[in-house]
Amino acid sequence: MPTYKKLVRDRILEIIEKNGHAYTYSILDEAAYQRELRSKLQEELQEYLDAETDKDSVEELADLIEVIYALAKIHGASAEALEAVRKQKSEARGGFEKRIFLDQVDEETSRKPG
Hints:
Oligomer: single chain
InterPro entries: MSMEG_1276-like_NTP-PPase_dom (IPR038735)
Largest sheet: none
Keywords: Coiled coil
Distance between the termini: 69 Å
Organism: Tumebacillus lipolyticus
Helix content: 55-70%
Protein name: Phosphoribosyl-ATP pyrophosphohydrolase
Number of helices: 4
C-alpha cells in the first residue's frame, strides 16, 4: 500500500473508497494543520512551476487558490476578506499587468514631481 503522509482534499477518502481501496488517516490538530497547509502550498507551487501546458498551469493555480483560501481561514480571514485585501493593495500599488521589471533605484538622488 503506498504511503502518502500529506494533507489531502476533503473528498479524497470518499474517492478512494469508491474505487474499492482501503486507507488509513488521521485528523490534524491546528498546529499540524497549519504546518501541512504550508507544505501543501509549496507542493502546489512546485507543481505549477513544473506544469508544461496552459491547461495544467490553470489547474495548479486553482489548487494554489484552494490552499490559500484555507490558509486565510486559519488566519481569521474569509475568501471574501482576502479578496478585499488583494483589491485594496491592487488599487494602492497596482497589479502586474504592465510587466514592469525594476532594475535599480538610486536613493542618493531624488526627482521632484511634475
